[in-house]
Amino acid sequence: MTPGAAGLPRKYDVIIVGGGPAGIFAALELARFSGLKILLLEKGSDLPDRKCPARTTGSCVHCPVCHITTGWGGAGAFSDGKLTLSAEVGGWLGDYVGPSALAGLISEVDELYRRFGAPDRVYGEDGDRFDRWSDLAARQGLRLIYSPVRHLGTERAAEVLTAMRAELESRVDILTGTAVTQLLVEQRPRKKPVVPSEGERGPGLLMAKPYSAQERPARLVAAPGRLGRIAGVVTAAGETYESSAVILAPGREGAAWLTEQAEVLGVEVVSNAVDIGVRVEVPAVVTDPITDELYEPKLLYTSRHFEDQVRTFCMNPRGVVSTECWGDAVTVNGHSYAEPTRKTANTNFALLVSTRFTEPFKEPIAYGKSVARLANMLGRDILVQRLGDLRAGHRTTPERLRRSVVEPTLQSATPGDLSFALPYRHLRDLIDMLDALDSLLPGVGGRDTLLYGVEVKFYSSRLTLTADLETPVAGLFAVGDGAGVTRGLVQASASGLVAARAVARRITSSLR
To answer: Is 258 part of any domain?
Structure first.
């Protein structure tokens, strides 16, 4: 086998693939056990080297590896760092560990973030204020979810992640700029053995080619060992690292890669929903009444025309609209800062329509990217349109945008017409939701409200997993947003703890 990078061992007790919240928290947990040899591999750059031109210019230059979505800290490194302390939002980890265990994990994760510098203040804990807003929302057909939030702020999120990196420095071998391309699995007994690819690596190890339609097994229950045992990983540079325990935490950017690996190994997947919508920007005074008390209200709505679920997401009081790149597709996002001097006069938030496709379609990520690419084609990456222009059926021009009372914080967005990019069903759902929000917060549905498009949240296919988040390949775990288990910082971090503890139990029990 080709050895690992110079100065590093070839064999480890555990390998973690991905340096986002799930991977970092797995490493923090494993580092508590002395003597363990731990390797963390991250495709992107270390945090100080993550420099995105779009953060200053607003225009994506399509770097080979996106510094916004990839690198130490994952996609959350440049987010505004909202820690949502509710089991009702942020993913599906409770489906695996149970509601009680999830509540305990959220508390542990919150305490760890505080240990590394997260602020003490939590927004939205006041039950009386929540009840009052919940009643007001219900009158407009909206459901408000109780979700206290600890807000780091974009600049403080980086500080917390830097502190975590320093904690791990002496206990974990960390390689950034190192993509894992293949998984090594011990050959599994089958009536029809999987034919190894050209790159067979050592006795009993192979990179299997995908099953044919005839060979593909029936629906799997996650029984570790059913599909063999993990033996290690291979990087893009051809370096091999061996381990009988591998935790995959590739994040949303690595979701497609993880799905491909699942196909190769025969691990069954179930498609999650894809969320498609817009980023809404309004004067902060419109949303101050609710954000001053709850900071980030989580509102759900069933659209009048199609009865689809529409939700608010990532509300940024006095924040800025930003971009992020997912391969060949540029989408819109937003964040806010903790420092008062960096606040703006606007608030932005996402409105997302959740769509779960049924058979035979199984490509929700590809669908979402195709919608984003269409918007990119019509503008220079991101389109912006006044709500009044959308309702009137004409595009927003630079002249109309200059007349708007809302000054766009994403100056590089192209004035245009979102109706050419978004399907009618999504547009209708979004307008229904805006009407309901305008009744709750007058001004949200105003003529000069800005809509940026498109915003897409990719939730990768959910792999077949045990309660420990182990796949049917023994010793191979999958965690975080990339595994379709979570969709947020807190639950992603918690999933890393779950897998790490399962690995630690096995290693320590084998030493007794």
So the answer is: yes
Q: Please check the confidence at residue 53 and state whether its pLDDT lies above 70.
A: no
Instruction: For CA atoms 11, 13, 17, 19, give the dihedral sign.
Output: negative
**Pair (299, 250) in one structural domain:** no
CB 496 within 8 A of CB 22: yes
Using one digit for the tens of pLDDT, what is the confidence trace for 322-377?
Answer: 988 877 889 999 988 778 888 999 999 999 998 877 777 777 778 888 999 999 99
3-state SS class at 246: strand
Ranges 49-58, 144-153, 502-511: which has the least confidence: 49-58
323 with 418, same domain: the answer is yes
Number of H helices, E strands in the chain: 13, 23
Task: Band the pLDDT of 393: cuts 50, 70, 90.
Answer: very high
Nearest Cα residue to 469 out of 486, 453, 454, 452: 486
Q: Do 190 and 53 share a domain, yes or no?
A: yes
Tokens of 324: 């992020």
- 352 and 388 share a domain? yes
Q: Are residues 323 and 437 in the same domain?
A: yes
Look up the domain containing 403 and give its range: 274-458
Beta bridge partners of 349: 280
Mean pLDDT estimate for the chain: 87
Q: Is residue 136 part of a domain?
A: no
Q: Cβ neighbours of residue 113 under 8 Å, at least 6 residues apart?
A: 83, 150, 152, 160, 493
How would you class 398 by CB atoms within 10 Å of its CB: exposed for 0-12, middle for 13-18, buried for 19 or more?
A: exposed
Residue 299: CB partners within 8 Å, gap ≥ 6? 137, 142, 143, 144, 145, 311, 312, 437
pLDDT over 70 for what percent of the chain?
A: 86
Asked if residue 137 is part of any domain, the answer here is no
**DSSP three-state, residue 334:** strand
Cβ pair 336, 154 in contact under 8 A: yes
- Strand partners for 400: none
- Tens-digit pLDDT profile for residues 87-135: 998 899 999 999 999 999 999 999 999 999 999 999 888 999 999 999 9
Residue that has been written with the tokens 């033996």 in this structure: 231
Q: Do 102 and 159 reside in the same domain of the chain?
A: yes
Q: Report the alpha-carbon angle 225-92-325, nearest 5.
A: 95
Residue 83 and residue 489 in contact, taking contact as beta carbons nearer than 8 Å:
yes
Q: Tell whether 240 and 265 lie within a shared domain.
A: yes
Q: Does a structural domain hold residue 138?
A: no
The number of folded domains in the chain is 2
Same domain, 196 and 341: no
Strand bridging mode 173-175 / 38-41: parallel
Provide the phi-psi class of 294: left if phi over 0, else alpha when psi is between -120 and 50, else beta: alpha
What confidence score (pLDDT) does residue 216 get? 31
Using a pLDDT cut of 90, give the percent of the chain over it.
65
Please tell me the distance from the alpha carbon of residue 149 to that of residue 276, in angstroms, as a whole number: 24
